[in-house]
Specification:
Structural class of chain B: alpha+beta
Structural class of chain A: alpha/beta
Largest sheet of chain B: 8 strands, antiparallel
Number of strands of chain B: 19
Number of helices of chain A: 7
Oligomer: heterotrimer
Strand content of chain B: 15-25%
Strand content of chain A: 25-35%
Number of strands of chain A: 15
Chains: A alpha/beta (about 260), B alpha+beta (about 500), C alpha/beta (about 325)
Shape of chain A: globular
Distance between the termini of chain A: 54 Å
Chain lengths: ~260, ~500, ~325
């Protein structure tokens, strides 16, 4: 089987620096990590590769070139090819443009199945997988927490999706886009100590706009249909500790606190 | 020799019930707390023992040791399983664990002569509880107290939280009985002191199961004064300031039972509710009222003398509350185990060293700097600090604590995180002339440095090993370095 | 006049009313004509009389999880009616279909909108990013239509006048069909995950009264969690243990009943807006990170608080 994993590198949302003057997030590229949902997609794909060593798994990501070393680490755990789509023209692309760029590349290659994550921890739009499916005229399911391994072949897959109220098992024809959720049990292993310096440069494929040939107006900020106007950080007020006794007054204080804050 | 034959012969020697080959128990017996994470994740890289045997008395232990000595079976003596340096880890394919489980009687409590005799498998907590009933205490309180047993406590030269007053186990042992691989049983009698040649108790105390199997111990017991406990706590500028006060109290002749200085990071773990990002200095004094009051005054005087380093005093009740929560229980161990299975994390590791007063602050700073600058995964550290908790006239210990986000496969945790940090601490300590092993024993994970630790005196240890365990069946890999053990460290 | 299309799902019909309010917020000074589309829906009753047009399409072959089919149908409606805005609820399905449609229409889309601002005709859609730590205001550029998925429960539709709803049956709209079929549906039996709870009523060694902890949780629409001490006693499952060796939680409100606050517990508390602790010892470590500290017996206070809340409900009714 030929599987493609489309992944995104995201900043560490727990540790970012925010510029309160310009209201922008300082992008510290060295803190980028694999989006947790996407890591599950990689984990599942690797599982399939271990099951059938003949299968070919390509990892695709649109990202700044600084994440090359991270892609190399992904290759070191057993993937066959990693494609980095990177060009300064693409900076500032919204989900619409990103989906078009990724789809243009994907259209050129063969695949039986495209795997991805569902939400990203920074944007959390879940747009890209659906939009790639639409561009490539493929079916799509997301919030997948389990894919049946024995029946996963190049014509169909049986997947279980979690929505608000239930778990639904679908059979979906392949090729299709399957988006996993981090609730699934698949995990991407770390590179083993003995493999930390493995040379994987022959499996790394770097693509720029020279290969995809978009015009400058179609991509980046210019081509985006949504623009970020402003951002602000949710701040936590410093705590004003209040000490009360456990008498009627204390009960009243707590009751009013709960009521005022909308918990009752 | 065929494993099946050995098992059969062991069963015939003891009884079927006394020989366990349960898979889970054997897997658990293959390693101790040094490899707690790999064990929880079931990726240990060491062989499992072939059986755990539970002898009922000294005679059975004698038979077992002779059998193993004659047949080349590696022996791991075991008590409460609280070892932290690989002392209980197995490095041989044909190994039996000899567990002191059935040696569980308190033989005698003699309050008039201040002595108590227990078998090796008696849990410390059990003896302590019995002594409290008659107004006495063991004075020995390692954090593992609820779980540790006397055999192991003596074999590792353990120390407890009140050592600054009561001393370490070596100060408490009066006499003992032990069995050697050739079957010889030695009983060292109980006398208050003697000059009868070198003090041979110290061949057994601290031998970590490499020379003999301890079967019985007599220890001193102390009158217990629970009502006079007084606590003092302070926030101090830095570790060095705290150490200066500790030294002042000690060299002036006072002995609080607890005397500690914590670095800020370590203080955050215990005192987050009042440490205000400073180092913490604390004392507990116990004993007869006059002595406690004098000790507290001495502490206050020492603090006054070094007031430049003191930020403020802390409410004593906070120290008292904290102290009552300190010990492990089996539940703590079990909970950490479950947590390691569920999450990619554990509750951290420690490396404890000792040096004289002048050296310790320099050593502390040097280690912290080296780890922060040289350790390749320093950015994954979530905790790096330490505390001094056992003081002497001529110096103190430093208990380094460290924890980190485990961003690697469980199999690699030791080589990527734990061991490199331990290595830096050991190297710096030996460089500064201190001891790399204050009270946890060398085990297997510091055996790489045993010769550096002892220098020319290693000769004396080596000869003991040649004399008492010439065939090398006692706890292969502990204390005495083994080349072929390095593969388990890497 | 502005035309707004609302996508209605059967299971979330009532919540969809919020979309009507969204329309008003988008175009506060325009006349709005609202259209609702309900595919294979049994009940339009919730929007009947509230929006101007209901498109109804009944075709068994079209499944609500089929992004291809639904995008095609909606895109067909767009070419017929040229809506100014197409709104979805940010349900699981809504968040799948909406972006697919937006790509097909080559228009911008914003997900999970929680607030709308319209300044002199410039519309900004506000939504959470960075796992909720940042709020971003997004503008849609280009020809439109404006598309968005809206978080339910945020916008409520009030002060409405009844309108004469026109029902239009859709027939013979060309569409692709996806190759997906349902094999099994199972209603969730998976117990709640305290990591996702918004309010936690947590019991420690000083309060193992589970019955009342559950009682309070019910009144606050909360879940029960516990410290290690309670789990060790075998009273609750480890699945609800908060702490370093258990789970890390981030509720908006954490009520700690009789919890001491050892570091290993507190390490499981992350970014919590409000902490109330009830403890006989006001100097217990957990009190240092609390907004309100109640000094007293946790079990007694728990019962008193429950009584007070129940009284409050009675008075309100």
């Amino acid at each position: 089987m030929h599987i493609v994993c489309v992944i995104k590198f995201v900043p560490d949302v727990d540790n970012f620096s925010y510029n309160y003057e310009t209201h922008t997030i300082s992008r510290n590229d060295s803190q980028m990590l694999i989006n947790p949902d996407d890591a599950c997609a990689l984990g599942f794909a690797l599982k399939m590769k271990k099951k059938d060593p003949q299968s070919f798994i390509e990892v695709v990501s649109m990202a700044p070139s600084s994440i090359t070393s991270q892609l190399e680490n992904i290759l070191r755990v057993g993937f066959d090819k990693a494609t980095l789509i990177s060009d300064s023209l693409y900076a500032g692309s919204d989900t619409y443009v990103t989906s078009k760029i990724l789809s243009k590349y994907l259209d050129k290659i063969d695949y039986d199945c495209i795997l991805s994550g569902t939400h990203s921890i920074d944007g959390d739009t879940s747009h890209v997988p659906s939009q790639i499916a639409q561009c490539l005229n493929l079916d799509h399911l997301n919030s997948i927490y389990q894919i049946e391994e024995d029946t996963f072949n190049n014509s169909s897959a049986v997947v279980t999706v979690e929505n608000e109220k239930s778990s639904i098992t679908y059979e979906i024809g392949l090729p299709a886009v399957l988006s996993l959720s981090r609730e699934s049990s698949y995990r991407l292993p770390y590179v083993r100590y003995k493999n930390l310096n493995l040379d994987v440069s022959d499996k790394l494929n770097i693509i720029s706009n020279k290969d995809l040939c978009f015009s400058a107006e179609e991509v980046g900020l210019k081509g985006s249909l949504t623009k970020v106007k402003n951002t602000h950080v949710k701040t936590y007020e410093t705590r004003d500790k209040k000490i009360v006794a456990s008498d009627d007054n204390g009960v009243e204080v707590v009751y009013n606190f709960l009521k005022d804050k909308g918990f009752i | 020799m065929d494993t099946k034959i050995i098992l059969k012969q062991l069963e015939e020697m003891l009884s079927k019930e006394q020989v366990s080959t349960d898979g889970e128990a054997l897997y658990d017996a293959a390693a101790d707390r040094y490899k707690k994470y790999a064990k929880a994740r079931k990726v240990l890289n060491v062989p499992t023992p072939i059986a755990i045997v539970y002898p009922k008395n000294t005679e059975e232990i004698r038979k077992l040791l002779m059998y193993c000595n004659d047949n080349g079976v590696n022996v791991i003596p075991r008590g409460g399983k609280t070892a932290t340096e690989g002392g209980l880890e197995n490095w041989k394919d044909v190994t039996i664990v000899i567990d002191a489980y059935h040696l569980d009687s308190i033989v005698k409590i003699d309050t008039y002569n201040s002595q108590a005799t227990v078998q090796a498998g008696v849990p410390l907590q059990e003896l302590e509880d019995e002594l409290r009933k008659v107004g006495f205490t063991t004075g020995h309180s390692p954090q593992s107290k609820p779980v540790a047993k006397y055999g192991g406590l003596v074999a590792t030269r353990s120390i407890g939280q009140f050592s600054t007053l009561y001393g370490g186990i070596e100060d408490m042992v009066v006499g003992l009985e032990c069995v050697f691989p050739d079957g010889h049983v030695s009983k060292i009698k109980n006398v208050p002191r003697r000059s009868g040649g070198p003090d041979i108790r110290h061949i057994a105390i601290g031998n970590e199961g490499t020379l003999c199997y301890i079967t019985e111990v007599t220890i001193k017991i102390f009158k217990f004064y629970p009502d006079n406990n007084r606590f003092k706590g302070y926030l101090v500028k830095d570790v060095e300031s705290g150490i200066k006060v500790l030294r002042e109290v000690m060299v002036n002749g006072f002995r609080p039972s607890v005397a500690r200085t914590y670095s800020e990071e370590d203080a955050a773990q215990h005192f987050y509710h009042f440490y205000e990002n400073k180092c913490v200095l604390l004392f507990m004094s116990e004993g007869p009222k006059g002595i406690v009051d004098a000790t507290v005054k001495a502490i206050e005087d020492a603090v006054e003398l070094h007031k430049d380093g003191i930020v403020k005093q802390v409410d004593s009740s906070l120290i008292e509350t904290w102290f009552n929560q300190l010990n492990w229980s089996q539940k703590d161990i079990d909970d950490e185990f479950e947590g390691m299975i569920e999450n990619d994390s554990h509750s951290g590791f420690t490396t404890e060293v000792s040096a004289d007063w002048e050296t310790i602050p320099k050593l502390y700073d040097s280690v912290i700097n080296r780890v922060k600058n040289e350790f390749p995964r320093a950015k994954d550290l979530t905790m790096l600090g330490g505390h001094s908790s056992h003081s002497y006239l001529n110096g103190t210990n430093m208990y380094f604590v460290y924890n980190y986000n485990i961003l690697c496969e469980p199999e690699d945790e030791l080589i990527i995180y734990h061991h490199p940090i331990q290595k830096i601490i050991v190297e710096e300590t030996i460089k500064f002339g201190g001891s790399m092993c204050h009270h946890h024993g060398i085990g297997k994970y510091r055996s790489e440095w045993t010769k550096d630790e002892h220098g020319s005196a290693y000769y004396m240890l080596e000869k003991l090993k040649e004399a008492f365990d010439p065939k090398g069946v006692m706890n292969y890999g502990t204390i005495f370095p083994k080349e072929d053990g390095l593969k388990y460290i890497e | 006049m502005k035309k707004v299309l609302l996508y209605i799902e059967d299971e979330f019909c009532d919540e969809s009313l919020g979309l009507l309010e969204v329309s008003r917020k988008l175009y506060p000074s325009d006349e709005i004509k609202t259209y609702a589309i309900a595919i294979n829906q049994k009940k339009h009753s919730c929007i009947n009389g509230l929006c101007d047009v209901i498109f109804s399409l009944n075709d068994e072959d079209i499944k609500t999880y089929d992004q291809k089919a639904i995008s095609d149908i909606l895109s067909n409606l767009q070419s017929q009616f040229s809506f100014d805005a197409i709104l979805f609820l940010a349900t699981h399905m809504g968040r799948c279909i909406a972006p697919s449609l937006a790509m097909k229409l080559n228009t911008g889309i914003v997900a999970d909108v929680t607030a709308i601002s319209n300044e002199n005709g410039e519309i900004s859609l506000i939504r959470p990013a960075y796992s909720g730590k940042i709020m971003a205001g997004i503008n849609i550029v280009g020809q439109g239509p404006i598309m968005m998925s809206v978080r339910s429960g945020i916008f409520s539709f009030e002060d409405y006048k009844k309108v004469d709803t026109k029902l239009i049956e859709l027939k013979n709209i060309a569409h692709r069909l996806g190759n997906i079929k349902i094999k099994n549906i199972e209603n969730k039996k998976i117990p709640y995950d305290i990591r996702k709870s918004d309010v936690l009523v947590s019991g420690g060694a000083g309060c193992t009264d589970l019955e009342n902890l559950n009682g309070l949780a019910k009144l606050l629409n909360a879940h029960v969690s516990a410290s290690r001490a309670v789990v060790d006693k075998g009273l609750v499952s480890r699945a609800i243990q908060v702490g370093q060796s258990g789970k890390t939680v981030s509720p908006s409100l954490y009520m700690a009943f009789g919890i001491h606050g050892a570091l290993q517990h507190v390490e499981g508390l992350k970014d919590i807006l409000n902490i109330i602790s009830i403890n006989t010892n006001k100097n217990a470590p957990i009190c240092s990170i609390s907004d309100i500290v109640v000094e007293g017996d946790a079990v007694l206070f728990l019962k008193k608080l429950i009584k007070r809340i129940e009284k409050g409900y009675q008075n309100d009714c």
